[in-house]
Amino acid sequence: MPDSRYIGRFAPTPSGYLHFGSLVAAVASYLDARAAGGRWLVRMEDLDPPREMPGAQAAILQTLERYGFEWDGPVVRQSERGDAYAAVVQQWLRSGLAYACTCSRKQLEGSGGIYPGTCRDAGHDWHGDVAIRIRVPELEYAFVDRVQGEFRQHLGREVGDFVIRRRDGLYAYQLAVVLDDAWQGMTDIVRGADLLDNTPRQLYLQELLGAAHTRYLHVPLIVQPDGHKLGKSYRSPPLAAEQAAPLLLRALGALGHAAPAELAGATPAEVLAWGVAHWDATRIPRVLTLEDARL
Ligand SMILES: [Zn+2]
Fold this sequence. Notes:
Rossmann fold, Glu/Gln-tRNA-synth, 295 residues, protein biosynthesis, three-stranded antiparallel β-sheet, Glu/Gln-tRNA-synth_Ib_cat-dom
């Protein structure tokens, strides 16, 4: 039965063009939303202007259009949401939930990425070029991902107080994504498994905001045949417009939905329509090798 309250999204970062990995996430989020009779929104996660590639936003939207995706409502840009982020950070600073951190990158070396709490009770002035961190509780957060299964993380021991506004004044992804998902009424987050270990931090922020928890589905990462992650140097090529239908079929195959041979000559819209009609998220594999993805 269609769930008309389902709201999902695809949220690309315009630091580059869409590649095959992002196409797999887009296809999964689109089909999951449409198969549920829900809405599907596109949000541009352009929080970091220095890392943005000129022209990437327009190129991403054009690729989505050429690949047959139809989104609901206007594209929301995080670069236009600064006032909303600032208001929440101010509120948390005043209540003492958030605090200023003056630690340099060098000072934090050797802490294994877990903030040791150095500035927690230092009472640093939060004006000026300081990072803002949120206090985390000594608690384990757990959730059941629809594909990856149960995931647990102890925020105090495995993460530590984390940054919600960077020293350079830019807002952190963790904060923006949770505020936007709540503001846009998201019910379902479908995205790449590289963000799986961000989820407990986001559950915690949802709790602080009094926002409803969302369901999660993390699509498989593409790994090397030996199971290792692809190195940072590996970049799959940008998506060519004339390859739309074959690459959509390949993305469907990677998601456990191999299409019948008759679809070989179909248009992108026809491929997506077939995907909506046959979508079954329980068929999505937990991991994907380069070979499965045939890159
Ligand atoms: Zn600090």
